[in-house]
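Internal QA ticket QA-208
Title: Verify multi-chain structure generation after dependency bump
Assignee: T.L.

Test input:
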Amino acid sequence: MAIIERPADTTTTVAPVEEAAPVTATSSYGYLRRPVESTGWRSWAFTVDHKKIGIMYGVVAMFFFIVGGLEAGLIRLQLAGPEGTVLSADKYNQMFTMHATTMVFLFVMPMAAAFANYFIPLQIGARDVAFPRMNALSFWVFLFGGIFLNTSWFLGGAADGGWFMYAPNSDVPFSPTNGVDFWALGLQITGIASLVGAINLITTVLNMRAPGMSLMKMPIFTWMAFVTQMLLLFAIPVITVALFLLMFQRSYDATFFSVEAGADPLLWQHLFWIFGHPEVYIIVLPSFGIVSEVLPVFSKKPLFGYTFVVFSGAAIGFVGWGVWAHHMFASGLGPVSVAVFSVAPLAIDVIFGGAVLGLFAGMYYWWPKVFGKTLSESWGKWNFWLMIIGMNLTFGPMHIIGLQGQPRRMYQWTENRAGEGFFNLGMWNLVATIGTFVLIVGVALFFINAIWIHRRQPVAPLDPWDARTLEWLTTNPPKPHNFDRTPTVHALDEVFHRKYEDVGEGDSHEYVQRSTLDELVLEEEAQADAHIHLPAPSYWPIVLAFGLPIMAYGVIYTTWLIVLGAAIVVAALFGWALEPADAEDADFDPPAAGGESTSKELANV
Amino acid sequence: MRDAMTTTSVESVNSLSTRLRSAKVAAVAGLGVLLAGCAQNAAQDTFAPEGENAERIDGLTRLVFSIAGVVGVITFSLIGWTVWRYRDRGQPIPEQSEGRKSLEIGLTILPALILVGVAVPTVQTLSALNKTSDTECVVNVTGQQWWWEFDYPVQPGCLPGGITEPIVTSGQMVIPADTNVLIRGTSRDVIHSFWIPKLNGKRDMVPGRVHTLRMQANQPGIYAGQCAEFCGLSHANMRMEVVALSDAGFQTWVDNQLEAYTPPEEGTLAAEGEQTFIANCSRCHQVNGILDTNGTPIVSRPDTQVYPGAAPNLTNLMTRNTFAGAMWDLIDDQRREEVWEASPEEFDELYLAGVEDEWLNAVRLRAWLRNSPAEKAMYADPTQLEPTDGRYRGMPYLALSEDQIDQLIAYLLERK
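Actual output:
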């Protein structure tokens, strides 16, 4: 971004800190100047601003949510009646594999990443994440990985082995199209995105908290997102190993999962679920964090048992590793190995109810923070009710269906085994299908609300919910540098305590509003830091990310593409390492005369 | 202006969360209703156990569901009450307390105790289900895309008569009722899962491993099952049934399975069918005792044609009620209903009668012989066999004429 210089003689009451000479950009080294555009597509493609990256994460995740939702719609249409013919067996298998893969890896995880990216720096009083270029890299890698994965639809068919991709059904003789190759490579690519993001956000949380913000004064969302990133840091390598073995199994004739060569197919299941169980927490913890952030605000009380919730969340981060084998109940692992009945509909219910609803809560709560306007409340109510009803109509019947003996992943069910009573499979399959479309309409209302209705909404007040945490101590939307003055934190729920004072005596409590958030923000503006250094945008993250899917196509099709992709990656790494530390001074407009505008503006190059 | 807006929004969000809670309470109540009853006639209803293993699971399930239901109702009632009791009525900002240690500790210990309480019957059930020392008969079960093979090793101890020669069958596993049977299961290709909901839980059948599963049916009858681990294209069509017969009935079945081959009478349609069978089917499908024109026994070699290496043994096809991986019934709808609805006393007789011309499901069987890949999703396209070294997964199109189909059906009808 830019180096924002302010005249030292502002009305500040604090003496400006004596600083070393500010780092000024020079053109003495570096192959390419850093991009400086603050408008247009370049301002997004080359940005390293965690807020812009967060928004892009959110937009792309919502796009994949639509894709995954359409896949769900087709699946439920197929199962609405007996002997469904909407999809062939082959297409159906691809559909449910990609539906789950999309929803888990391309919607819920990046949507959580969107919230974490946008709000962790704001909640801890930082100006950006620890490694801004890596942040951009993780977004672009995720985007290109997701696109790569979905190009399989047009290149001979998508993966058809289920999102769990059990060996040996994932091997070439049983899945001869390239779908599983796209799946294994695509998830390795998005895994890089998750891993880079996790390293970045963990470092950010540990090193970049505002003065006074001890770990136990961190907002609960940041805590839960932090635990999530720790889980990712250790879980992603496990699935990467598994995917790497699968890639070699399929593309280079390795025998990691070949029974005839002495392999045990359960190896895959162990690797997959050692990743997969923590993944369940990776999916729900950010949403738990959002809910735990929203409830205290509207209760006007701190989170009950904050310390306890934090330690529980952290405990999940450890205990989550010890229980993978319960996904293998029926796999024959010894005494603890009996599956009572199908638990999958329940699992999906938990994912949807736990993760998706929490994420939507976050949307409505933080929308004014990000876009300056609240979403329409009346549309929001319709959105909420249709989603709640649709969700329960979709997943509730699946419990009945499962207990009535219809296993998962059947492309057709037959009237012969459907039964005739109140719990007959026919009726409840139809109800689940109707529920899915209620759900789809509910989600569609969100998009209408967010895209069209939102435009007519008035500008939201700075503090629409009487919020409690640090991300509200700045404008809506926040300035590129987040905070004019780096806040000093004294309490959990810092913003609440800045707004209200307890004037009660003894055991009685009475809270008086001392200042509004508008006043607090004005005060911050008035005492803005004299020197704010923001990271400059960079060309290289998007370029580096672009090389990865090319390499992946190479693994599937032809070796020279691997070389080309690797060349792009290596070139981008060099560009990354050697580009100048900042945009050149000459790229910026000079500070406006007269001190009216005190910041260096970005030139519209 | 700003304050007014803030208040409205806060109120509305609070009322939203109230309604969210009540919706969840309703959902829990709905689950209670679900548990209270069970469906009529659902072939794979997990709440209608008909063997002691499934009864154990059912007992545990009902116990756990009841406890979870009580906990759920209490939890959601408390949440609902709290939301209602402390709803926003413009009251002053409450004390900014951050918790209460005693409550936090209590709410940790209580669920832990409940979980320990649930764990005891769970572990008891699991160890009972894993017992193998008291089983009297053994059946080897092998999954293959997309059908189940059952072979009975020679075992003198299985009922007084014993099993004196190996029996190989598929689609329906016949066992003596009220007898503990041990399944030793594996797979020839991908992972399948053997699941007869009314008799026991699921057990994955994994290539390269042998997994065991107890089977016991209280009474003679037919018990539906379905492959429960996703196994590829026709996973949905991979069905199986366990057929329990009385001790006498089981002995009759065993004796019948081991009867020597009787060739069709010369000059009959069935005799032509035997030649058609030898020409078109016997490369993969074994009929025990069938001889070629030189009088040499024909041994089928499905491993040269079929990727995972086997095809159903058709020696006694018409003693079974299903074909093609139990995807279809060999008997017509009326006969099916009679067999499936039969009382335990009359079941033996109905089942052991097998398939007769008059109740043969000829439409389905003919369609299957005419063009099986069109009937069941399989990998049987002869132009796309490169990944499996030229071998099929499933039954290929055989270009049989209608006359040949007539002959084959006449021949197959005698395989019992």
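Spot checks passed. Chain B touches chain A through 88 residues (CB under 8 Å).
Status: verified.
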